[in-house]
Amino acid sequence: MKPTLLAVAHGTRSAAGQRQIRDLVATVARRRPGLDVRLAYADVQRPHVGEVVAGARDAVVVPLLLSAGFHVRVDIAGAVAGTGIPVTAPLGPDDVLVESLTRHLPAADAVVLAAAGSADPAWRRSVHRTAAGIGAHVAYASGSDPRVADVVAGLRERGARRIAIAAYLLADGLFYRTLHRAGADSVTPPLCLDPAVAGLVLRRYEAAILTTADRRL
């Protein structure tokens, strides 16, 4: 029997965001009948990843996160420490996400990639890598500068008539909703709504199984 796929999301207070993440995990499970797929959270919601890992014998953790930032390096790493449970790479950066953003972007004079803010250098590098893939300006929905509304305003001042925001956010929530008030003409949907993301989750899981099998040989 294959190991449990333990998907670990950030967690949100948004009812819509909670539903979107549950739907993503349900889609993953439907694509692999018989595979035990479970959902846990790094913050805000329960069950916490540590609670689920404590009862798991054979599992692979797949972070439903867009970069190996604090929650991967601290929360998830701490939860699996000493268990032997492997943790895959997060979902981003990845060409699947770049392609998803590109598919959902309308024609525009300028594009702003809007991500959650972070002081983590690896996170910021991954955001810039993704922005380069779609030819976008980088901005942040919280914490870090430059802020989304400021970047949009600056592009307007420089003559951009139609500005699109590429939402580098997995699900609906406070950060995503602020993007609709940032002055752009359009905002792409949360990434988890794209069926291709479910395929990316499974790809991360299957790569971890192959790596673990190779180590045991």
UniProtKB/TrEMBL annotation:
Alphabetically ordered keywords of this record: Lyase, Metal-binding
Lineage: Bacteria, Bacillati, Actinomycetota, Actinomycetes, Micromonosporales
Name of the molecule in the record: Sirohydrochlorin chelatase
Transmembrane helix among keywords: no
InterPro entries attached to this UniProt entry: CbiX-like (IPR002762), Sirohydro_Cobaltochel/CbiX (IPR050963)
Keyword Metal-binding set for record: yes
Superkingdom, taxonomy of origin: Bacteria
Pfam family membership, one: CbiX
Organism whose genome encodes this protein: Paractinoplanes rhizophilus
